[in-house]
Description:
- It comes from Paractinoplanes brasiliensis.
- InterPro entries: PPM-type-like_dom_sf, PPM-type_phosphatase-like_dom.
- This is Protein phosphatase 2C-like protein.
- A five-stranded antiparallel β-sheet has the order 1-10-9-6-7.
- It contains seven helices and ten strands.
- The chain has one domain: PPM-type phosphatase domain (Phosphatase 2c, domain 1).
- The radius of gyration is 18 Å and the shape is globular.
- The chain has 272 residues and is an alpha+beta fold.
Amino acid sequence: MRTSVASLAAESGNENEDWFSASAHLLVVLDGATARTGTGCIHGISWYSAHLGAALSEIAHDPSIPLRDVLAAGIQRVSNLHRSSCNLSHPGTPSAAVAIVRIAGARLDYLVLGDVTVVLDMGGRILALSDERVSQTAMNERRAADSYSIGTAEKDAAMVRMKHAELAQRNRENGYWIAAADPTAAQQSLAGHLKVGEVRRLAVLTDGAARIVKPFGLLSWPELLDLAEAVSPEQVLRQVREAEASDPLGSRWPRNKASDDATMLLGVGVGD
């Protein structure tokens, strides 16, 4: 598999809380969850994403370890790194959405936890995998936040209320699941496998990149893959930024913030 990647912070000069690694046989992408409340952690979201991503990239290289177990071991390893210095029981402890794609022989394994998207082109049939449970929590607070223009004090206050309501449902039944401090969350991930020969090309996108398809609707998944393959993943992200700039207040596409960290990994020649 031949890989290419692009990653842009939400705003130039800002820290990018996405994290990725890519090789011919393993793709790992994390999207650090924005902290709008206290976290009980002295390190921050980027630290968490980077350390968890590095752990997953190492552990997943052993194809005998199922990806859910890879994720559980990675969460446990990072928890052990800062358990003595941080309050990991804090409701806002750093967290991240995760996607892993691994090729081992004739088998392609995938895992998604949180709203990172894995797109698989299976010779004309597109399979797009994302865990959208987080967007189904705090619905009243989300609708309220969407009613305000981006950049207003009312929007900012509504986003904090939404975050508190969302965190109350994190990593519990009938809520949503994400990588944080509890390794048992890994067992709630969407995981499966395919034959490598079934897949022509694939992409992994954080929600800041996937928004060009959902909710913006400016590209379809096949069009996104075609553009990334013909030009580059960076061109996809540039189109995301152009769309965001055309709607700075969120009038056309209500959303949490004008721009988001955006990362896209493309793999082609998967079955070669």
